[in-house]
Amino acid sequence: MEVKIIGAGLAGSEAALQLSKRGINVKLYEMRPKKMTGAHVTGDCAEFVCSNSLGSSDITNACGLLKKEMELLGGELIKIAYENSVPAGNALAIAREDFSQAVTKKIEDDSNIEIIKEEVTTIPDGNVIIASGPLTSDAFAEAIQNFTDSEHLHFFDAIAPIVEVDSINFDKAFWASRYDKGEASYINCPMNKEEYEKFYNILINAPRIEQHSVDKDSKYFESCLPIEVLASRGVDTLRFGPMKPVGLIDKRTGLENYAVVQLRQDNSAKTLFNLVGFQTNLKWGAQKELLHSIPGLEDANIVRYGVMHRNTFINSSQILNQTLETRKREGLFFAGQITGTEGYTESIATGMLAGINMARKLSGRQMLELPKETMLGALAFYITDKAHLKHISSKDNSVRYLPPQPINSNWGILPPLEKRVSKKDKKLKNELLAQRSTERLKLYIQTIS
Q1: Is the pLDDT of residue 31 over 50?
Q2: Are 263 and 290 contacting, i.e. CB atoms less than 8 angstroms apart?
Q3: What is the pTM of this model?
Q4: DSSP secondary structure string, 152-216?
Q5: 77, 210, 261, 363 - which has most CB atoms within 10 Å?
Q6: Based on the domain organization, do 330 and 365 belong to the same domain?
């Protein structure tokens, strides 16, 4: 038995390892480094491009719960992520180069996996998992579009700048995690009102990189908006978003600031830090002026400027079953962000699910349709069920289906608790949802085993 996987990103790498450990041979196709994308910089497997964070590890956080479920289901990349983690408070952040190199070595050393470094331009015959990601090449995107008989939807994703830690002025910047949770692993650059207004004026007047005409009507994904787009919504939008000062106190002064720019560790050597929430499409000269206007970063050495690229995803509600297998063709699965999930953890999780289900299909076993009370089950159900996209016109009662938007793991996609909990007790509600999820998943694993 053999499976072809298109794309050696997070989802494709996870799927390959899931199949291999079940004794199935894999041909893993990756066009990098022969053909690069607008965001990747290496040919390594599972390269992180936008951020180095996998989100919270706390199971009372939706993303944290998803990680726990991956561990229960035998996820491979989540183990490697913890082995290559760097301090980030309650979050799981990784040294991105170390992580990708570790995944690449594990795959290269695996006798069941053959890596083929070439671009795929047509959907192969046989058993296939498409995990080509949101940066799918134009030729292969056209092949997918022809197969699905539907238009692709596009949105923009943006990458945050990275600076050298030794160039940060710690007479102004300070170390802290919000509300002092975990160790003080974030660098914080505080602003008073005057400094913030100066920063804001530079930002809203800064020149942006001109978009290609074909991309001008594409959509942004709400949780990864360029900072200039956020700023255009109002002068205080950033202070209630990525620059909110709440819970970040400089113990030297004891003051809560007007706004705070946070930087998160980007590599294991702690020499590089990325600006949290500062994904941008500004021209590089404008980025330099903007970053140097931030207190503490006046002389910061910028090692990577922010860039923006087009992402592609399919209308999974019209194309996929909850198992992530296509309705139109047996033995063809999709996984990762191209399915309409958003986020690194979600990419790995759907790659794991597609890999497990492909293996179970080939062995004649029932494929997993995880309980909707689990985060991964709810995520798979959300992207593949068209009921939530149904719209009935108030004028003529006509039915149409709204185009999907990319989705992160979040509590809103889970069924409500059987027992009502006060809206004010959010922490208790999340704890009960997490407890229910893990219990249902453990029971489901016992049942299908």
Answers
A1: yes
A2: no
A3: 0.82
A4: -EEEEEE---EEEGGGS-TTT-EEE-GGG-SS--EEEEEE-HHHHHHHHHHHHHS-BPPPPGGGT
A5: 77
A6: yes
